[in-house]
Amino acid sequence: MEIADLPICTSHRAKLLAAGYSSLAALSAADPPRLALDLNIEIPEAEDILKIAVCANKFKGADGPSSVIKGAQNAWDMLSDEQSRKHINTGSGDLNNILGGGIHCKEVTEIGGVPGIGKTQLGIQLAINVQIPVECGGLGGKSVYIDTEGSFMVERVYQIAEGCISDILEYFPHYQNKAPSGQEKLKPESFLADIYYFRICSYTEQIAVINYLEKFLGEHKDVRIVIIDSVTFHFRQDFDDMALRTRVLSGLSLKLMKLAKTYNLAVSCLPY
Questions:
Q1: CA 227, 152, 19 angle in degrees (round to 5)?
Q2: pTM of the predicted structure, to 2 decimals
Q3: 3-state secondary structure 115-171
Q4: Do residues 164 and 132 make contact, with C-beta atoms less than 8 angstroms apart?
Q5: Residues forming beta bridges with residue 109, ordered by sequence position
Q6: Average pLDDT of adjacent 10-residue blocks, the chain of 272 residues
Q7: CA distances (Å), 159 to each of 131, 140, 188, in order?
Q8: Of 186, 188, 195, 201, which one is least surrounded by beta carbons within 10 A?
Q9: Which helix (H) or strand (E) holds 235?
């Protein structure tokens, strides 16, 4: 059971998510006075919420420790898993070499740099490159683009898609002739259709969308990358409590890492 599934009023669920309580474990660790302060509610209300969370945790663990602890993994298996992970071509040979082949699945990659250096362009490039067919060295997947700044330009996406198709035909000239599906896939319109776009206008929307991603990815299992541009924009604008901001962002980071591993996809965060 997730925070969004708790049998409490909608306003309290929204306040919990906005305050950074993104899991039952985080909520259960809070005490009534602190929770009341974070949610701006009365202490008796906070106590009721915590009682419901405790009951939900007990229900979640009803199958015993094995439902939570799935066993140890030996170091050899870990190394084999890392070496077999798929990666997404960034479009730059030098950057691919630095990253060990590209942006890796099952990992969260933060891409930093001064304003204007091209972080958004790289994010768009990744949203296109993840769709390169498997026969051409790509993943043949789809992408989720979470835009917090409004910098996603569809015209530019179309241009990058055209450039990607041109490169595919240059290096794999016979691919388009192999099957009718190849002819349909190698069109800019097809690339744009496989980018799921979310426009975010506040930090509460961002928290809600990231919490919704688990359900969305469960329904769209062909998604291979989630791009957030930028992950900290609204938190820099709207947050005065630095400790709370750190806790909320840490919770979101943990959520994204879990999603990357669970759904075998890459997460790329572009900071402000």
A1: 55
A2: 0.74
A3: CCCCHHHHHHHHHHHCCCCHHHCCCCCEEEEEECCCCCCHHHHHHHHHHHHHHHHHH
A4: yes
A5: 268
A6: 73 79 74 83 87 73 47 76 86 92 93 88 96 90 95 96 93 73 79 96 92 93 94 82 86 92 93 72
A7: 15, 19, 8
A8: 201
A9: helix 233-238
Rg of the chain (C-alpha set): 21
- How far is the first Cα of the chain from the last one, in angstroms, to the nearest whole number? 33
- The most distant pair of C-alpha atoms in the chain lies apart, rounded to whole Å, by 69
Our measurement of the distance from residue 218's CA atom to the centroid of its chain's CA atoms, rounded to an integer in Å, reads 13
Cα separations (Å) of 51 from 47, 56, 61, 209? Answer: 6, 9, 16, 27
Q: Is the dihedral of CA 61, 62, 68, 71 positive or negative?
A: positive
Tokens at residue 5, please? 């599934």
